[in-house]
Amino acid sequence: MRYDISKATAPAMPNLGKGTECIRLLLSQTSKDMHEPLVPMLFPVLGAHVSGAEFQYPDLTWKEPTGMMANLVGDSGCNKGQFSNLVEAICRDFRQHDEAELRKLVEWSKQVKSKAGNKEKPARPEVAIWFPPSDTTRPAFIQNAMALEAQGGRTQYLNMPEVEMADGMCGGHKQISQMLRNIYDRQRAGALRATADGVTGNPTLRANLTLSATPFAARKFYKNDLFNGTFGRMVFSYKARVSRDGRIPRQGKYTDEFYHKLDEYLARLDICKGRYIIRPLNKLADKLAQDMASLADLADDDVLWDCSKRALVSAWKAGCILWILNNQTWTKSMGDVVEWLVYKDLWSKMQLFADLLGKDADTMSEAQRRGPKNMLDDLPDSFNEAQLEALRVQLGKSKEGTNGQLRKWLFRKFITYSAQTGLYSKTEEYLTGGKD
């Protein structure tokens, strides 16, 4: 495992080498302090440009780069607003499409008004918006999903500068959980209703979402959805508070040269159609699944294990997008980014919600921001069962789980046992490679 997510500092992003040129291009327009927080946010926006392509996950299911959701979290005034500038740059073609669609409505409205009361009114045109406004209501969101489905199943993309805006799209905060899960899992809306005009539709929800929030707003928003699957489906990118250096961050200039390069990458996303199996990406996903199981066993943390499963799927989808952007070829640098995305998401979740996941207080201090604790690291190289039991009690875990944890560590070859001494010892494999 290359990253330690128990620390207060974020896992350092790997160098953006061969195959990640599009990400480097986008980051060139943002201040340096926002590079790492913004990278996980880019993939839902870019993924919305892919329509008609599916990729096989290691479990043999086929997935689209839709249902991708990410939440940027940072203190007020930490430069989160730079993300919206990137979104507008990436979605220029979406804006042009939507303006043409809205002109259809304007023209239809004029025709309706010009007809006398006894004349037949023209039918309302079917309008499909690719980049709906952030204050889109639930009925409008469902209606738009129906129109997009009728036009071949395009993904709609929404960017919400405040996390509370999602309430309106979902029909209220009580509906957040069901709606976000349906979006992530590409389920139908469940909105079949009888009306005066007939029966409304029940479209498959193809949408990608990005949201922004302060730590307080994020904790308040997700507090009641930490254990029902909603929380795990959302990718979090947390920017921790930094020192007061008194410098105003510099953003880039969106020049014609920048847009020309960006449009070349976006064209690769737009033309990608069909079914694909990215074997090196799937091999990496299998390896990361093993790493996540090991990490959860070292910390004896079921919540971490549950969150890691969907963190891996989200990072895998990001890998699919990188593959398309790189002319459908794979590189080691792309794999490094995918691996980092998994740990960045889990680190962010634990930094923001560790105390709530432990069902503690409603407020968060620096001392409460704790990631999963690798208990084996806190034990001497040789130790007995009583020492692990005492450590578990100190960390608020049960004594009864001690034997089970030792069995898992033995199975994963983290430790060996000597019947002569009654001691457990860390293996050479663990000491030299388990913490990499």
Describe this structure in words.
- It comes from Xylanibacter ruminicola.
- This is DUF3987 domain-containing protein.
- This protein has 2 domains: 21-91 and 130-368, Rossmann fold (3-Layer(aba) Sandwich); 375-434, Orthogonal Bundle (Arc Repressor Mutant, subunit A), CATH 1.10.10.
- The chain has 436 residues and is of the alpha/beta class.
- The chain is built from 16 helices and 12 strands.
- Helix 2 runs parallel beside helix 3.
- A 4-stranded parallel β-sheet has the order 4-7-3-8, with helices on both faces. It has a 3-stranded mixed β-sheet with strand order 2-1-9, with no helix packed on it.
- The radius of gyration is 24 Å and the shape is elongated.
- The longest helix is centred in the C-terminal third of the chain and has 26 residues, at 332-357.
Low-confidence stretches: 360-369
Q: In angstroms, what is the radius of gyration? A: 24 Å
Spatial separation of the terminal alpha carbons? 5 Å
* Second rung of CATH, namely the architecture of the largest domain: 3-Layer(aba) Sandwich
Question: What is the chain-wise order of helices and strands?
Answer: HHEEEHHHEHHEEEHHEHEHHHEHHEEH
Strand order in the sheet with the most strands: 4-7-3-8
Mean pLDDT: 88
Structural class computed from helices and strand pairing? alpha/beta
CATH topology of the largest domain: Rossmann fold
Q: Class of the largest domain, according to the CATH hierarchy? A: Alpha Beta
Largest sheet: 4 strands, parallel
- Strand portion: 5-15%
User: In the residues, how many domains can be counted?
Assistant: 2
Indicate the overall shape.
Answer: elongated
Helix content: 40-55%
Total number of beta strands: 12
User: What is the number of helical segments per DSSP (H or I, 4+ residues)?
Assistant: 16
